[in-house]
Amino acid sequence: MLTDRFHRKIEYLRISVTDKCNLRCRYCMPEEGVDIKSHEQLLRWEEIYRMVQAFTKEGISKVRITGGEPLVRKGLLNFIERLNNIGLQDISITSNGILLSRMAADLKQAGINRINISLDSLNKERYAWITRGGDVNKVLKGIEAAFQAGLEPVKLNTVVVRGFNHDEVVDLALLSKDMPLHVRFIELMPVGTDSIWGKDSFVSTAETIDRLREVGELKPARVNGNGPAQVWQLPGCQGTVGFISAISNHFCAKCNRIRLTADGRIYPCLHSDNYLSCFESLRNGTDDEELKTIVHRAVALKPGHHHLGVQERMMNAIGG
Ligand code: SAM
Ligand code: SF4
Question: Does 47 map to a domain?
Fold first, then answer.
């Protein structure tokens, strides 16, 4: 079992397999994209695999693959297939859904259990604006494909931003009516020095809940793997609505996560620039004993709670 200095059980590893993305969401990435890292600066699949193996031996049981956009990195399906053989209980993925209509069935086949798809607006123009050029129809087709492939549960991640989509939360929540979709509203986080959002853009979970109450009574519900989200159901809906309140009600006391980035950094906390690099050790073909030490040193770095500020690295690099 892996526990940190504050007696929290660490069992959930989020892996950012690439910091590249086929979108440029305004709260996540600069317009020009990320510094192009050479292949040599990124962990190879084999190296990520070794690190996940080391984490799993010490107590990690759940892995989420994220990015950047994980579906853009070649070799992903093979990697997922291999992950199935190391005793993990759960392998999930977070994607912007753009490439999902053609990859959902393969992801399921490779061993993905469940998926989170990010979608901030149903309006074609708004979606294109926030993502700097994305096509919302591709995401909607991706959601359909995820259901058809049998991924379960399918969750939707929506970052709520005042002046952009706060008037759309009811429409987005009602996507849970005719399909068993779990729509989660995420509070905007002040991450990344280039982020264009000011304090005025922030919408609290309490405000989003108030808007949804206009539709009807919210009843408590449960969804598999709901992590830090509070989950509710609107009347007559198959799916649920959830709220991730990293700002207004932080969940540090229950935090069970640790993060590995594409360039081989282990971040013990999403909201801290403190990290431990495993890149050199992996590249030099270190032995399992040293990887075990790295796992424990990284977990020991986990802070008791986060200090929100503007971090140097943007979300695409850490994986959200
Ligand atoms: N590209 C994939 C996607 O968009 O789902 C995976 C990576 S993305 C960094 C993971 C999640 O982080 C997305 O749901 C995204 O909306 C969220 N995110 C990015 N920047 C954020 C911010 N500043 N505040 C809150 N959530 C953010
Ligand atoms: Fe890409 Fe996801 Fe960041 Fe949007 S939120 S720019 S889709 S990594």
Answer: yes
